[in-house]
Amino acid sequence: MSAARESHREQSGQSDGGSPGSRTFSRRWVLGAGATTVLTTGLSACGSGNGSGGDSGTITAFVYGDDAVKVQAASVARFNKSAAAKKAGGRVKLEKVPGSDYSPKLRTAMGSPSAPDVFFNWGGGSIKAYEEAGKLVDLTEIISGDPVLRDGFLPAVLAAGDLKGRHYGIPMRGMQPVILFYNKSVFAEHKLQPPTTWDQLLDINAKLKKAKITPFALGGSDIWPELMWLEYLVDRIGGPEVFKRIQDGDAEGWGDPAVLRAAEMVKELVDDGAFGSSFTSVSYVNGGAPAVFAKGKAAMHLMGSWEYSTQLGKFPDFAKSNLGWAAFPKVEDGTGDVRNVVGNPTNYWSVNARTRNKDLAVAFLKDCASQAYAKDLIDNGDVPTTSNAAELLSSAPNPEYARFQYDMVEQAPAFTLSWDQALGDALGTKMHTEIGKLFAGKSSPSQFVAACKGLK
């Protein structure tokens, strides 16, 4: 199980069941965003040594110690026996850090002489403070000059973890795009097809409400499921450049017309009953929203790709027979490409600027582009972000679903990182508050925009 999904699983008291189908996966913004909190303190204490502790022939890699860590353990074992490791003059030692301890331990270690040479992270806002403190190797030129790293990953995912257009990470786990799921039995009964345009979506909503079925399940009490609606609407209306401006630190970007229009469309959905009348008291984490969806009380659910595994664990018959999936529809007069994706692209390896052996660290990163690495991810129930993964997807737990995800991300001109991840903990938490007020009708679209412009 990836760290991206692990944090909410832990909060909701769910346990690993071993196989991908028996586990309930959930969204992970808490740990990812929380990483930024611990990064903002202690960096000034970082020593000025020449690298991590120990001999220069061994480098250390910190990794989030969840169920999926076996993929990284196999990678380290494989690499240490390789000619590349011998040529670079060393080996990698993997240090598995329990999920609840990962962020504070990483922050403490990065402020000490024994900092890791390579470390797991969530990209975007989770590494911003490290980059600002000069603690990361800028991998941009290294990647552009190396065919394995340059061509080994889906471009949209490689770019999604960037900071100001520079690469500081290499993809090392599975993808998690946000997908429009639908109940195939409800759609068949009412002779509906998944919407490809916003007008079609509104027409479907009207037909479903007439049949006394809530169009969309929504775990509004958690706030982050509401964020997904704004992420896609802003992208479809104005393209990924709108949020990129905000992510790069320009708060005036919240004043872009695409943000206001997206907020207005959200208000129209809420006022029209698209989410029902009690969505603000429904939770995803405790299984409320998935149950509403699986039981046919709601016909659709906008959620991360882990929804499939969530349903497989809680309502296996529904997941196997009646769970459908589609891309988020286009907004007819919007400028955003309908192929664009939002969500959690993957997790990343980054390299400490103080590493004793940068050549060894870079050589190790290349294993993430290998066929063996991709196969291990697939066997763990993940969909790799490597460009060589397509031919391996037939062995996935659900090949059709895995292929849909892979094609969706491969064809995406842009993959926007979840806003809370991209902005980091401080801004992300304040943004969540404003999103909650918008959906609950406690602020108007214009008030939402004004409040977000004032976030600091």
TrEMBL record:
Residue spans of biased composition, Basic and acidic residues class: 1-11
Top-level taxon: Bacteria
Pfam families: SBP_bac_1
Annotated coiled-coil segments of the chain: none
InterPro entries, per the entry: Bact_solute-bd_prot1 (IPR050490), SBP (IPR006059)
SUPFAM superfamilies the UniProt entry points to: Periplasmic binding protein-like II
Region feature (Disordered): 1-25
Protein name per its UniProtKB record: ABC transporter substrate-binding protein
The species this protein was found in: Streptomyces bluensis
